[in-house]
Write a structure and sequence with these properties.
single chain, alpha/beta, Rossmann fold, binds ribose-5-phosphate
């Protein structure tokens, strides 16, 4: 039983395949809309079906081109609002600018907060997202937000395989909680890398490793792979500390610049990511495997619509 009329799902240009897969789970067609740019670079959105009093879900992970996709999202929200949608939930599986979440240098912006303000001002009623870079981003929104985790889904990819002597490795101290959750499900020990990032550049170095990895199979876990610098630095120090084999998993495949090429040449045997972001065919390297979060998002949408617990999906 829902307070709102039927579910309607619409997609921007960020990841239509994910939106279609979510609709497949929901057994509904993807809503019809036009989202395009005029020759003067301005974005146009038109929802091509009636959404009055409907429970509208707008699927738009903030993929590259990040700023264009954000603008699409804001305009989609406005279009749905002005079309008298009953409720608008933005489905943002990957929340870009998540790393700009604090004033850690003089005179910098907190862009993750600014975007939250834009989303609310545009008229969103709720947010559905996945593995935020920092949990406190939830608090940047004063509307309900559901944050799903794909750590159990990633864990499942290793549970049925007979990988001996597995050790889960956090790429830095901040990632320790995520690694702990994975290690807990897989019932393995964990290790933590001490990472240094230099300035605002993407240069990273793994300077130390805490934990016993010698002769073991390491499973590096991170929330996102951007330039690939972090996981590659992790793989280098793991090799130095005598691991046998290196696996890697991450939720968000940002894969910026030449990350895919660097990962293809790295010591990492296999990288498992989710489809919170689209991966262009040119970046689908042979050691990359993608698992879909569409069913999980579809189930969360069903529960949000029906007023059922989303936490219950994760045993809470
Ligand atoms: C950093 O705190 C994050 O958890 C990731 O480690 C980082 O965003 C990965 O970025 P890159 O691949 O560019 O090193």
């Amino acid at each position: 039983m829902s307070l709102f009329d039927e579910i309607k799902v619409f997609s921007g240009n960020s990841h239509p395949q994910l939106a279609r897969d979510i609709c497949k789970y929901l057994k509904i067609p993807l809503g019809e809309s036009e989202v395009f740019k005029f020759s003067n670079d301005e974005t146009f959105v038109r929802i091509r079906e009636n959404v009055r009093e409907k429970d509208v879900f707008l699927v738009q992970p903030i993929s590259s081109p990040v700023n264009d996709n954000l603008m699409e999202l804001f305009i989609m929200i406005d279009a749905a609002k002005r079309a008298s949608a009953g409720r608008i939930t933005v489905v943002i599986p990957y929340y870009a600018y998540g790393r700009t979440d604090k004033k850690d240098q003089p005179r910098v912006a907190i862009t993750a907060r600014l975007i939250a303000d834009f989303i609310i001002t545009a008229g969103a009623d709720r947010v559905l997202t996945m593995n935020l870079h920092a949990g406190q981003i939830q608090g940047f929104f004063n509307i309900p937000l559901d944050e799903l985790t794909s750590i159990p889904l990633l864990a499942k990819q290793y549970q049925d395989r007979d990988i001996k002597n597995l050790v889960v490795v956090a790429t830095d101290v901040g990632a320790a909680k995520r690694a702990h959750d994975l290690a807990d499900i897989l019932n393995t020990p964990m290790a933590i890398i001490e990472k240094q990032r230099y300035g605002n550049e993407d240069t990273v170095e793994a300077v130390n490793l805490i934990g016993d990895v010698k002769g073991k199979c390491a499973l590096i876990v991170d929330d996102e792979i951007g330039t690939g610098g972090t996981v590659i630095a992790a793989s280098k120090i793991l090799t130095k500390f005598g691991v046998n084999k290196i696996y890697c998993c991450a939720v968000h495949p940002v894969l910026s610049g030449n990350a895919a090429d660097l990962l293809a040449q790295s010591d990492i045997e296999e990288i498992i990511v989710t489809d919170t972001l689209p991966i262009p065919p040119s970046k689908m390297i042979s050691n990359l495997k993608v698992v879909s979060v569409s069913d999980m998002l579809g189930e969360a949408i069903t529960r949000i619509h029906s007023g059922l617990s989303v936490g219950a999906m994760f045993g809470h």
